[in-house]
């Protein structure tokens, strides 16, 4: 049995950024058909190699645009890397853009089933967890209201409540501890901490070095798509605070 929960091997991710100034969709389609669209290549990640041992909680640090979210999306399978591969050992739950998969015209209840099925839950499982999800979100009164009438904080709360109702072995967190108001933030951090206690492996992006130091035992620094440093939280946090000061 592998002691690693995640293995990232030679991962690079290239985006094609359009260089064209196209005036209309028609113009764009014509140019695309004629092969006249021009792109700039942009490498958001370059030759990333690391592995995460089971039970490690790894903070991912880096300035805006460093590639943190892209890396989490590659590991979660949202993006296929341009080169390289990712191996996972264990059930993974990604908490990325919470509620991004909601259907605005459907109610809270309908979206619980829809979003739950997107996360791979069965109907029976959602039936058994429905009350718990609604209670945690504190949106009891809004379950019959279409999600388009929710505030963005309410959508994130519902998304968080649905996604965290399972017990994953690998948890991928992108800034989700900043969802909702101060009260919900405290509650969601407590919930994540209780998952940590059960020995889950965590990859965690946060702009708060203080939060990473509190929650993680390891960390990495990404800079312009490259892995600058990876190791125990103490020395990495020190290196990062020198970078940002
Ligand atoms: N779908 C995409 N198409 C084109 N470029 C993208 C796409 N997604 C990300 N990028 C680019 O890749 C780079 C890394 O973005 P990413 O969101 O991973 O950074 P980040 O470290 O998470 O930043 P932040 O701290 O601002 O959230 C950025 O320059 C961004 O513009």
Describe this structure as you would to a colleague:
The chain is of the alpha/beta class. It has a single domain, classed as Rossmann fold (3-Layer(aba) Sandwich), CATH 3.40.50.300. It is built from eight helices and nine strands. It has helices at 25-33, 68-76, 108-118, 123-137, 152-163, 182-197, 209-215, 233-244, and strands at 4-18, 39-53, 57-61, 83-88, 92-95, 170-174, 201-205, 218-223, 226-232. The strands form two sheets. It has a six-stranded mixed sheet with strand order 5-6-7-3-8-9, sandwiched between helices. Strand 6, helix 6 and strand 7 form a beta-alpha-beta unit.
Helix-strand layout with pairing:
Elements: E1 4-18, H1 25-33, E2 39-53, E3 57-61, H2 68-76, E4 83-88, E5 92-95, H3 108-118, H4 123-137, H5 152-163, E6 170-174, H6 182-197, E7 201-205, H7 209-215, E8 218-223, E9 226-232, H8 233-244
Parallel strand pairs: 3-7, 3-8, 5-6, 6-7
Antiparallel strand pairs: 1-2, 1-4, 8-9
Helix pairs in contact: 3-4, 3-5, 4-5
GO cellular component, one term: membrane
InterPro entries: AAA+_ATPase, ABC_transporter-like_ATP-bd, ABC_transporter-like_CS, ABC_transpr_TagH-like, Bact_Polysacc_Export_ATP-bd, P-loop_NTPase
Keywords: ATP-binding, Nucleotide-binding, Transport
């Amino acid at each position: 049995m592998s002691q690693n929960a995640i293995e990232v091997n030679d991962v690079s991710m290239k985006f094609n950024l359009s260089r064209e100034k196209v005036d209309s969709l028609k113009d764009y389609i014509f140019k695309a058909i004629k092969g006249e669209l021009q792109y700039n290549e942009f490498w958001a990640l370059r030759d990333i190699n690391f592995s995460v041992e089971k039970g490690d909680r790894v903070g991912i640090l880096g300035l805006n645009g460093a590639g943190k979210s892209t890396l989490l999306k590659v590991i979660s399978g949202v993006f296929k890397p341009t080169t390289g591969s990712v191996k996972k050992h264990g059930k993974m739950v990604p908490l990325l853009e919470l509620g991004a998969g909601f259907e605005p015209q459907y109610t809270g209840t309908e979206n619980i089933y829809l979003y739950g099925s997107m996360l791979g839950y069965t109907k029976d499982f959602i039936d058994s967890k429905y009350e718990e999800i609604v209670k945690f979100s504190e949106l009891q009164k809004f379950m019959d209201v279409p999600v388009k009438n929710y505030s963005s904080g309410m959508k994130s709360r519902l998304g968080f409540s649905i996604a965290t109702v399972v017990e994953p072995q690998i948890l991928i967190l992108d800034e989700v501890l900043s969802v909702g108001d101060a009260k919900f933030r405290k509650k969601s951090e407590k919930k994540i901490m209780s998952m940590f206690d059960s020995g889950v492996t965590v990859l965690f992006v946060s702009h708060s070095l203080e939060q990473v130091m509190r929650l993680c035992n390891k960390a990495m620094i990404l800079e312009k798509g490259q892995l600058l440093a990876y190791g125990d939280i103490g020395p990495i946090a020190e290196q990062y605070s020198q970078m940002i000061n």
